[in-house]
Amino acid sequence: MKKTIMKCGVSAVVLGSLLAAGQAFAHGYISSPKARYIQCAENGIENPSHPACIAAKAAGNGGLYTPQEVAVGGVKDNHEFFIPDGRLCSANRSNLFGMDLARTDWPATAVTAGPRTFTWTNTAAHKTMYFRYYITKQGYNHSQPLRWSDLELIHDSGKADQEAVSNHVVNLPARTGRHIVYSIWQRDWERDAAEGFYQCVDVDFGGSTSSVASTSSSVKSSSSVASSVASSVASSVSNDTCAGLPTWSASSTYTNPQQVKHNNKRYQANYWTQGNDPTTNSGQYSYWLDLGACAGSPTSSSVASSAVVSSSSKSSTAVSSVASSVSTGNCTSPAYVNGSTYANGAKVTNGGSEYQCTVAGWCSVGGPYAPGTGWAWANAWSLVRSCN
Q1: Burial call 97-116: b when 16+ CB within 10 Å, e when fewer
Q2: What pLDDT is stored for residue 207 in this prediction?
Q3: What does the DSSP assignment read for 129-171?
């Protein structure tokens, strides 16, 4: 009987230690207004319904199971060194890269200029050096990855002791349209540890931004629409899918998601690698992912020059004019299959046209990203040519 009790006691101690250890890795997140991670987690981690969350799942959102762990250890106030431009919302953690997608439709909370309470729910309380809040500048372009230079500081809480819930009254500046509030919780490295936690909160001030206004006015002028569409297609259709990529070097180090060209093919690093030839070390679980040949396609200049529409034409005519300006001919690419997995550079045919994948995560989602037919297909594919 004593042995049984002793065993139970030891088990309880071990279990308690494991629980304590697990709790030590849990920290905090912004629960109000809901951070991007919480919005998508509540939309359904396994089967989301919101387009932005669907795309995030395809691009990597495993961290949504632990939104309190969007963190980097040892930063000690040196955030920009550890987190590069374009990776602010994921804190440069690969399991959260989906949170960095540059989109205009992330679930957002309606706000107004003036005082607004932001709440951090801290699943593990820590001594704090500061909670800082930043907001994107007026005119921020949501179609571009978030950069440090896009932000301006609007609140600094200063030091605080351990808190299970941290409330901060942040004075939101005058803005119009959608914006991102970026918050940093810096643990006190003098009394605690140097870890930093990061949260992106999407907010909507209402009204229209200057970019939206200019888009609206351009729609009224069909010649402007034609020029805009031609420019868009020109930038998305290039001669070489490997254009701008560095040539692989055995002496260089690479990490995900860096890409290189080697022997007329494009490769993406799966993780840290050096000296591993992509030709002989590619595969889903190898050092490199083979993204296909450096295939050519029609020159952008020919696309742009042929997209000329008279001022009396409608915007729909402008779009069809640009589409028809892309070189035509019989297409040999395989038919698109909704929901199949596609790598960057993959070509498919759908609805009488040929398309090339530009964002693998979205290409593989299907539905709203189906080439040529989904409402958001241009975010995942580029039009190559008509097959008729």
Answers
A1: bbbbbebeebbbeebeeeeb
A2: 81
A3: EEEEEEEEPTT--TTS---GGGEEEEEE---B---SEEEEEEE
Rounded mean pLDDT for each run of 10 residues along the chain, 388 residues in total: 42 36 56 91 85 83 70 87 93 87 92 94 80 94 92 92 87 94 90 86 80 36 35 38 82 81 84 87 73 53 32 36 44 83 86 86 75 79 87
Short-list 359, 352, 292, CA closest to 328:
352
Q: Which of 154, 185, 210 is the last residue of a domain?
A: 210
Q: Is the pTM of the predicted complex or chain greater than 0.70?
A: no
> Which of these, 233, 253, 236, 186, lies nearest to 344 by C-alpha position?
236
DSSP conformation letters of 13-70: HHHHHHHHHHHHT--EEEEETTPHHHHHHHHHSSS--SHHHHHHHHH--GGGG-GGG-
Q: In which residue are the tokens 């490997």 written?
A: 242
Residue 253 DSSP SS3: strand
52 with 194, same domain?
Answer: yes
- Domain edge (last residue) among 172, 191, 210: 210
Phi and psi dihedrals of 189, rounded to 5? -70, -15
Q: Give 318's contacts (C-beta < 8 A, 6+ positions apart).
A: 222, 223, 225, 226, 229, 307, 309
Show the CA angle centred on residue 28, arms to residues 22 and 30, nearest 5°: 150
pLDDT of amino acid 249: 93
Q: How far apart are CA 240 and CA 191, in angstroms?
A: 54
Domain that holds residue 388: 328-388
Residue 14 is assigned to a structural domain of this protein: no
Q: 346-371, pLDDT tens digit by residue? A: 899 998 889 998 877 778 777 767 89
